[in-house]
Specification:
about 150 residues, alpha+beta, Aminopeptidase, 3-stranded antiparallel β-sheet, 3 helices, about 25% helix, globular
Length: about 150
């Protein structure tokens, strides 16, 4: 298992977009569209997990997330692992890679927006807020000092 940064139009870009479009997550069409449009800041990144040259999961590291009008930044977003690889700590590895990258940029904390309860807490995140995201669904905002 190897985690790589996937940059816009690099050798793994199309493979990543195809993986996202083919995944079971209901958010995947939105993620694929956002990534295809690639309106990201220079320091924002997408990380993908590869096993035998196949993508099995991904996350991104971004300036903003789906909750408007908050001062929190940066975010670890779009954490997804193929169902066949769940329970093998792949999400944790993705989150840790994103945190290491955040540290390298000088960030002292990171945030995750999620509707999952008791999921990100096991990775050291603390729920600090709740806000409605762009579709009106209430989401928790989680923070981790790094």
């Amino acid at each position: 298992m190897e985690i790589k940064q996937v940059l816009f139009n690099d050798e793994n870009w199309k493979k990543l977009i195809d993986f996202v479009k083919g995944s079971s997550w209901s958010e995947s069409p939105i993620i694929a569209k956002n990534w295809e449009e690639y309106n990201y800041l220079e320091w924002e990144r997408i990380f993908a997990v590869f096993e035998n040259d196949n993508i099995i999961g991904h996350c991104s590291f971004n300036n903003v997330d789906c909750v408007p009008d908050v001062d929190y930044t940066p975010y670890i977003q779009s954490v997804f692992v193929n169902e066949n690889y769940r329970g093998k700590r792949v999400s944790e590895k993705l989150i840790n890679i994103a945190i290491e990258y955040a540290k390298s940029l000088g960030f002292k904390e990171v945030y995750i927006v999620s509707g999952h309860i008791n999921f990100y807490e096991k990775y050291g995140f603390i729920k600090i807020d709740e806000k409605k995201e762009y579709r009106g669904v209430l989401q928790g905002i989680y923070r981790k000092e790094i």
